[in-house]
Amino acid sequence: MIKVDISLREIISKLPDKFIEILTGKKGVKLLDTSLPNVKDKRADLLVELEDKTIFHLELQTFNDKNMPLRMLEYYILIREKYKTNKIEQMVLFIGENLNMISSLSENKLNFSYTLKDIKEINCNELINSNDLEDKILAVLCKIEDENKYINGIINEILKLDENKRKDYIKKLLSLSRYRTKINEKLIANIKERVMPITIDLRNDPYFKEGLQQGIQQGLLKGETKGLKKGILVLMDLGLKKEDIAKKMNLSIKEIDEILKENNEASKNR
Fold first, then answer.
1. Which has the closest alpha carbon to 138: 151, 152, 148, 128?
2. pTM
């Protein structure tokens, strides 16, 4: 199962106040242990105790999964078992491109449902205007009306941080923006222009490595080349030669050329 990249999980694990309030209409008061009792290692993306003692369970999903209702039912049972409560509110937050999933399960005498939300429906202005930098970075996944204003604002704020924090937040921002190709390209150009004096080697960055590998795996699983092309172009942009890219992605140089050619032809026909 391909999970959401590590940088996104780390951001939400810091309990971004405005983000939780937008999703639930309530304030989160305490993060809960996300590991759940099972014969195998089972961990939720986020568990938060809300102000009314309800447990809010959030799962982040980058692609459509027909088995999502069964997965969420399993989570519900495990959460209820661990925390001894039936006050559980569950949500799947979709951060991919085109949402096409159901949010309920009804068969025989079983009726189960949860909230399914597309992150692009969230009003990103509330996140952008938050005092929490994690909230502002999460806004890159929403539908942003003025992308240039957002990019300038978030980069200006990141530049105020000390060098170590600056690098960390730039990595997280670039990692999350991979799900939004257009704004990702603008961010990369802006960061190159304004932040290049700070050396950020994404090739050795754990966020980038895991995110890139997930993109490669998902592209292979679905038989698609779009994700593979994106990974190839990013590595080429970082100055890697085709021979090095081929080794990293377990592809031949011929396969890389074919992927780039196929996607270029597809772009011309649109």
1. 128
2. 0.64
